[in-house]
Amino acid sequence: MASFGNSTSLIPDFLYSPHVSSRNLALMNVNHGDAASSSGGPPSKGFVIPAPSEKIELFSPKYYAACTAAGMLSCGITHTLITPLDLVKCNMQIDPTKYKSISSGFGVLLKEQGLRGLTRGWAPTLIGYSAQGACKYGFYEYFKKYYSDIAGPEYAEKYKTLIYLAGSASAEVIADVALCPFEAVKVRVQTQPGFARGLSDGFPKFVKAEGYSGLFKGLTPLWGRQIPYTMVKFATFENTVQMLYKYVIPTPKEKRSISLQLGVSFAGGYIAGVLCAVVSHPADNLVSFLNNAKGASASEAIKNLGLWGLFTRGLPLRIVMIGTLTGAQWVIYDSVKVFFGAPPTGSAPAPSVAKA
C-alpha cells in the first residue's frame, strides 16, 4: 500500500515519486561515505541523481497557478499550430463530397483560398483552447487531490483510475463552458467562406445572427465530445506512464532525467490521444455540424451524417491530429511546470510529504 504522511494530503505515492532535496542528498552521501569508512570498506562511488528541486509546494495556490498556466500554454499553442489540419477536418465533416480526403481537402482549400486561407480560425482557436486548457489542467489537479482526500489512502490507491476519471470529467465540465463560444465561432469561420475573416468580426456576426445563447448551442454535444475525451486522455496517460516506467523504462525514480521524463510524457500522451480521438469522434462530428448549420438539431445531424459517417467521417485525420496534439500537450505542460518549479507529471514528490 502507498505511504501517507500529512492527513490533509491523501493522494498516494503511486501518483508521484519521492523527492530528494539537494541538501538531504548531500547529507545522505556524506553519511554513507562515513559509514563505509568506519566499516573499513572503500568509500562508495555511487551517486544518486536527485529529481529537480521544487520551488513551489505541491497543491499550494502557486502549484495550481503553475498547472493552470501550463495548461493554457499547452492547449493554446498546440491547437493553434494544427489549425490547417483542423480546418480540413471540419470541412471534411461538413461537406465530404467536396472534401473527399486529406490531400484533396488541402488542395481545394489552397486553390480557393490560398495559403493564408489555411490559417482561418486561428484566433478563436488560440483564445478558446487556451481558456479550456487552463481550466482542464488546473481543475484536474485540484479535483484529483480533492477526490483522493475524500476517498482516503486505502481507497485512493485501490481506485486510482476512478479518481483520474472523476477528476478529469469534473474539470472538463468547467473547461467546455470556457471553450464553447469560441468553438462556435471557429467552426462557422472555417466552414462558411465569406462569413467572417476571424474572431474580431466573426463573433459579433454570430451573436447578431443567433444571439448570445447561440454561442452555447453546441455545449451539450461539446460535453459529449470532450468529457469522454478528457477522461480517456488523463486516465490513459497516467496509467500508461506508470506502465512505461514499470515495464519498459525501469529507471529508478531518482535517476530519471528531465529529458527522459518528457519523452515518456510524449509517448503516454500520444497513446492517450489515439484512444481519445476514437472515443470522442462521433460527438466531434455533431459539434461541427451543429455549429455550421443554423437551427440544426442533433437528430438532423445524425440523419444527415448517417450512423457510419457519424463514427468514421474524418476519423483517420483526427487520429493523427489528436495523437500528435496530445503528446505535444503533455510535453509542453510538463516543461512549463518544470520552468515554474514543479516536477513533471508522474515524477513529482509524494503529496504525503509535501505541505498542501
From TrEMBL:
Protein localization: Mitochondrion inner membrane
Membrane-related topology note: Multi-pass membrane protein
Signal peptide annotation: none
SUPFAM superfamilies hit by this protein: Mitochondrial carrier
Any Pfam family: Mito_carr
Intervals holding Solcar repeats: 62-146, 159-243, 260-339
GO annotation terms (biological process): mitochondrial phosphate ion transmembrane transport; response to osmotic stress
Record carries keyword Membrane: yes
Keywords: Membrane, Mitochondrion, Mitochondrion inner membrane, Repeat, Transit peptide, Transmembrane, Transmembrane helix, Transport
One GO MF term: mRNA binding
Main location: mitochondrion
GO CC terms: mitochondrial inner membrane
Keyword Membrane appears in the UniProt entry: yes
Annotated family: Belongs to the mitochondrial carrier (TC 2.A.29) family.
PANTHER family linked to this entry: MITOCHONDRIAL PHOSPHATE CARRIER PROTEIN 2, MITOCHONDRIAL, SOLUTE CARRIER FAMILY 25 (MITOCHONDRIAL CARRIER PHOSPHATE CARRIER), MEMBER 3, LIKE-RELATED-RELATED
Record's function text: Transport of phosphate groups from the cytosol to the mitochondrial matrix. Mediates salt stress tolerance through an ATP-dependent pathway and via modulation of the gibberellin metabolism.
Protein name: Uncharacterized protein
Species the sequence originates in: Erythroxylum novogranatense
